[in-house]
Specification:
By secondary structure, the protein is of the alpha+beta class. It has helices spanning 3-9, 13-16, 55-60, 62-74, 88-96, 107-119, 167-178, 194-203, 215-221, 246-251, 253-272, 274-285, 289-296, 310-325, 334-337, 341-346, 376-385, 425-434, 443-451, and strands at 29-30, 37-43, 78-84, 102-106, 124-133, 139-143, 159-162, 188-191, 208-212, 226-230, 238-245, 303-304, 360-364, 371-373, 391-397, 404-406, 411-415, 418-422, 439-441. The longest helix has 20 residues, at 253-272.
């Protein structure tokens, strides 16, 4: 994998927020030479929970198709200019400069987008969602393998790397408080790019790393980190969404409608062909397909649905105080920022069902589809029965939070005749405390036992 390429894609929000360098001409503008209307879309290729409004959507060409159909009706020629950025911050900078029409980013950056837009007189509106997790499982705190750290309480007096202004930082702050620690006094928090934090963790200059998708899964997949805290333990939704310049939405409502229809089509595609979609995103981003699938797969940590669900908007309001306390915003009027009208107007199809409980999955080499299982034990038995070298990836949901994780990186517990898996050792220990006789078993031993 191209680590430098991934590193450039995940620069922290707080460092990039001041940027306002112009890229290209005015967004949503007519080209005087031939009357072509250029629509500029800002996206984050490696923030893989935005792919239905970015990487995957671009590769499928659905937005261009929708605009071509629009052009046949109104006689206008449209051109889409895609601009790839590392995080949501530079997209916000370009939107407030009138250089980007439509952008996608995570929930905390969306709030900064709203605040910055109002402050600079270029207001924006949240019009749809890309990927979400109702419990917050998209953010994770990890430590180096063999660190000896077992719980968040063990971080007292330790150094933790995160990206200030990101949802991962919000998870860290909230989780530390629940653990009885003061985030400002009991830990030394370093504001670092994810790649810098990953290197610091590997080099021992920090004790833990709190980051957003796809870093925790990537580092776990590579054997460079172990999960210390599953963000789903907060039970607070986290999501990514699509924001648009208010002026553009008013003057080019038909183009916005075309984008939202295209996003819905890309969402349909991802949900109907998750393996193929993961492979496509992996090819475009340099991320391992196994990591992409962990988050974006059929049972993945993220659920894709454009709907502006009430529980997501309620969570967005709860994020405002975190950013205010960090000095990044004074206040954000979430109700004024959210505009459900364009999605209702553009997409008449019924919404997707609420995400259900995740199932274990097995991905064999050479297969274009995965197999799902009702229990963790069934997954272990299937892994044991597979021919050597044919298992590409095995995924299992946490027995309590439901967060999907790599089976060979999970903590396995034998409890009577049942098998249970956990993202973190702390979660497994809590289960052991309430279930006398249960015991932790190494993954390889669990596979052998299930196959005997």
């Amino acid at each position: 994998m191209n680590t430098k390429r991934l590193a450039r894609a995940l620069v922290p929000l707080a460092l990039l927020l001041p940027l306002a360098t112009a890229c290209g001409g005015p967004a949503g503008a007519d080209d005087a030479s031939d009357g072509t209307v250029t629509v500029t879309v800002g996206y984050q290729s490696k923030t893989i929970n935005t792919v239905t409004a970015g990487t995957l959507l671009r590769s499928l060409g659905y937005f261009e198709e929708e605009l071509a159909e629009r052009g046949r009706k109104d006689g206008v020629r449209y051109r889409v200019q895609w601009q790839d950025y590392a995080t949501g911050a530079p997209i916000t900078a370009q939107m407030t400069a009138g250089k980007i029409d439509i952008g996608s980013m995570g929930d905390f950056p969306l709030l900064l987008n709203a605040a910055r837009g109002r402050q600079l007189g270029e207001p924006t509106r949240l019009v749809s969602v890309t990927g979400y997790n109702l419990r917050g499982g998209l953010n994770t705190v990890v430590t180096a393998p063999g660190s000896g750290l077992r719980t968040l309480a063990d971080l007292k007096g330790k150094r933790v790397s995160t990206s200030v202004g990101s949802a991962a930082d919000g998870t860290l702050v909230r989780a530390l408080r629940r653990a009885g620690l003061d985030p400002a006094k009991d830990v030394s928090k370093l504001n670092q790019q994810p790649s810098v934090g990953a290197s610091a963790l590997a080099g021992g200059s920090v004790d833990a790393l709190s980051q957003f998708v796809a870093w925790p899964g990537l580092l776990a997949f590579q054997g460079k980190a172990e999960a210390l805290y599953d963000g789903a333990e907060l039970d607070l939704p986290t999501f990514h969404g699509v924001t648009v310049r208010e002026e553009f939405a008013r003057e080019r409502a038909d183009v916005l409608d075309a984008f939202l229809r295209a996003q819905r089509r890309a969402t349909d595609r991802l949900r109907s062909a998750p393996v193929e979609s993961a492979e496509s995103v992996a090819k475009e981003t340099g991320l391992p397909a196994e990591v992409v699938y962990l988050y974006n797969g059929a049972q993945g940590i993220a659920t894709f649905d454009p709907a502006l669900r009430p529980e997501l908007l309620a969570a967005l309001k709860e994020d405002v105080p975190v950013l205010r306390e960090a000095g990044l915003v004074k206040d954000v009027d979430v109700d004024a920022f959210v505009d459900p009208a364009p999605l209702r107007r553009a997409v008449t199809a019924a919404g997707y069902p609420r995400a259900g409980a995740a199932k274990a999955e097995l991905w064999l080499r050479g297969r274009s589809a995965t197999r799902s299982f009702g229990t963790a034990g069934e997954l272990l038995a299937a892994v044991a029965a597979a021919r050597p070298g044919t298992v590409r990836a095995a995924y299992v949901p946490d027995a309590v939070t439901g967060t999907l994780w790599f089976a060979d990186r999970a903590v396995w517990v034998a409890d009577g005749g049942s098998w249970r898996a956990f993202v973190t050792r702390a979660a497994a220990d809590r289960w052991l405390a309430g279930h006398p006789g249960a015991r932790v078993v190494a993954y390889a031993d669990a596979v052998r036992a299930a196959g005997s």
